[in-house]
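Progress against Task 2.4 (sequence-to-structure conversion) is shown through the following example record, which the project officer requested during the mid-term review.
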Amino acid sequence: IPGASRSGSTISGAFFRNMTREDAARFSFLLSIPAVLLSGVYELFSQRGTLLSGESAVLSLIIATVVSGVIGYWSIWFLLSYIKKHSMMLFVIYRIIFGALIIILLATDIIHN
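Structure tokens generated for the chain above:
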């Protein structure tokens, strides 16, 4: 479904299975591991020529991997901490607002599809 996120879909599916907010988020993150891992392997394979061209490319890859790992881990920790105490309604509201805004911008030809 265009516009539907993988995490939103898996969390919604977990809610239909009567999981708690925290369990639904953990379930979603666990389901993301194969997709993220395989997309990373694919990107490494498709960029192998660039990576083999010099050591600056390898250093950039290492730095980017470490930074994204730290930020990703922090983001997961933050979301799990947030949903222990709060509803997921904030995410529903912002998706509705941004969805309506995109429809309006497309309908008024301010942005083009």
